[in-house]
Amino acid sequence: MPREAEPSNNERAFILEALQENIRLDGRALDAYRNIELSFGDEYGSADVQLGKTRVLARISASLTAPFPDRKFDGIFNITTELSPMASPAFEVGRQTETETLLSRLLEVALRRSSVLSTESLCLLAGSKVWSLTATCHVLSHDGNLLDASCIAILAALQHYRIPDTTVRGEEVVVHSLEERNPVPLAILHRPLCVTMGLFEGGGKVAVDATLREQQVCEGEVTVTANRHGEVCQIAKLGGVASDALVLLNCVDIAVAKVKELDTIIAKALEKDATKRDIGGLMAELSAENER
Predict the structure, then answer these.
(1) Where are the extended beta strands (E) located within the chain?
(2) 154, 195 in Cβ contact below 8 A?
(3) CA gap 262, 115 in Å, rounded
(4) Residue 132 reports pLDDT greater than 90
C-alpha cells in the first residue's frame, strides 16, 4: 500500500526546533490560517476552496426519493468524500485509507449529526416524496488539514445551493425548471466549522492549520467544531500525546475565534457571487414573479 513520503530526521528536527521558537516554515503565527481562497462554479452548489496548497471541491446534488420508513417527515442528507491519487500518492482508487475514513466520520459528526440542515424542509409528501441531498467532497490537492478545508467547502456549497421549486398537486409532485421558477435556498439551521490544531511539546504548544509536514511531526491533533455563536458541536482528539484539560479549553477558545473569521470569509464570498449573478436586479425580479 503506498504511503506518504516521511520527512527526514533533519527535516523533523528543523521543524520542531523552529516551533520551539514560535516560528513556522511559512512564516505564519501559531494561531494563523494559511491563505484561504473560496470561489463558486457557474452552477449552484459548487464550491472550490484553496487552503494554502490544499485544495478541495464540494458539490451538492439533489434527487427525489422515498424517505426512510422510520422518518417519514424528513428528507435525506448524505456526505461522501473522494480522495484520488491525483491529490496524493498515498491515496488509491477503490481503496479507502485511514485518512479518508477519519475525514468522512468527522465531517459526518460536524455537519450532518449537528443538524446543519433542516431535513424536515426537504419533505414534499410525507412518507412518499422527499429530497435527497448529497454533498460530494473531492480532494484535489493534499498539503495538510483536509478536514477544515472540506468543512469550509461543504458548508459554503450548502449555502450557495438552490433547490428547484416544486408544486404538490394531490399525490403528484411537479418539479419546476430554472426557466419556470427561481430555485430556493436551503434551510440552514446553523453554520458549524472545524478548526484543527496540531499539538507539540507534550501538548503545551498548539499550531492552527498544520501543513502536511507539520502534521507528520506533531504529537497529536485536536479538532473543535463550533459555530459563530460559540456553540461547540464536537471536540475530537484521535490518539497522540495525552493532553491536559486546560490545553483543550485553550483549543476551544482559539477555535471559537477562528470560526468567526472563517464564517466571515464565506459570507463575503457568497455576497460577491450573488452580486455577480444579480445583473440588473434580475434575481429580485424573478423572486417578485414567484411571490405573485
Answers:
(1) 36-40, 46-51, 54-65, 76-83, 123-125, 129-141, 162-163, 166-169, 172-175, 184-185, 193-200, 205-208, 220-226, 232-236
(2) no
(3) 19
(4) yes
